[in-house]
Design goal:
It is built from 4 helices and no strands. By secondary structure, it is an all-alpha fold. The longest helix has 26 residues.
């Protein structure tokens, strides 16, 4: 005895013809060309991300998160630089220049009548006649 196959329901979609498959297929040469373009762009983006991250001081390089894509590394760097971690940005502290010259003093006259006796003696020895 052989089993007969069950009839297909009326709502079944017919299988696509062989010609329908050919229309949706990308030729291998074109696919390889597009894959090559994408790899070249990914390599270029990686080089740009490395150039951005080369501005990070060596002491702060451990702060860079691992496992980020090149585009995410660039976004992370821009955010970090905006906070002022690597210099520049909103969080930068402006330190005024310091005066490295000799301090300027003005000699002042001391009223000897208001000083205690020991200070009067010390002031007398300090004066040059």
């Amino acid at each position: 005895m052989t089993d007969t196959p069950a009839p297909a329901p009326d709502s079944a979609v017919p299988a696509p013809a062989a010609s329908d498959k050919a229309e949706h297929m990308i030729p291998k040469a074109r696919l390889d060309e597009e894959v090559g373009k994408r790899r070249a762009l990914e390599t270029e983006l990686s080089a740009v991300a490395d150039a951005f991250l080369s501005e990070v001081p060596e002491a702060l390089k451990p702060l860079i998160p691992d496992g980020l894509s090149p585009a995410d590394k660039i976004k992370w760097f821009q955010k970090a630089k905006g906070t002022g971690v690597f210099g520049g940005g909103a969080g930068t502290v402006n330190v005024p220049e310091t005066d490295t010259g000799k301090p300027k003093t003005t000699p002042r006259e001391i009223d000897l009548s208001t000083l205690p006796p020991a200070a009067k003696l010390a002031a007398g020895y300090a004066r040059k006649a």
